[in-house]
Amino acid sequence: MGAGLGIHSTPTAAFDPQRLRQSMQQQYGQAGLAILEEWFALLQQLQNQDIQTKLRGVNDFFNRHIRWVDDIQVWGEEDFWATPLEAMGKGQGDCEDYSIAKYITLKQLGVTSQYLRMIYVRARIGRSQITQAHMVLGYYSTPDAQPLVLDNIVPSITPASQRTDLDPLFSFNSDGLWAGGSSESRADPLARLSRWRSVIERMQTQGFI
């Protein structure tokens, strides 16, 4: 599924826990605040752990706390990309919401976007030859490494070479947009992906970045 770039760095500078609490309280009440506090506890628990522990902890947290539900049922839209606050507040989401939440959480834990990409794929579900659009999060340990895949369908983190059910179409992060399995960025993701731009803008308002 291609290669990645970079190494780890510091958490997001503009992260504002108090503003996040206020946003969650206003939009989702006490139930939303409860899961947000669990998320804060997760950050504290994982902050000084090794990367494998961070990947497992974040992957398991969102796979456990968010129930897969189609966007039409949750948001009344066919393809809505939620912020982590919105996904946690609803307790529901689809593949993009899982991937975005895991990406933002790992960045807050000090993993730079150079190591992470959200990967759009065609996925074969079960033994069927029929494919459907799906998104996963990829972690690239070195520029030439195959990514580890964090997914909501297959809960275990596995190398991309073992996910023969996935056919990558494009990938992106905060810094670039890649076609297929390419290791060279082709475009500014904010310019090309309007839904990602909307997520970034709402996260800024909510206190994530």
UniProtKB/TrEMBL annotation:
<dbReference type="InterPro" id="IPR010319">
    <property type="entry name" value="Transglutaminase-like_Cys_pept"/>
</dbReference>
<protein>
    <recommendedName>
        <fullName>Transglutaminase</fullName>
    </recommendedName>
</protein>
<dbReference type="Pfam" id="PF06035">
    <property type="entry name" value="Peptidase_C93"/>
</dbReference>
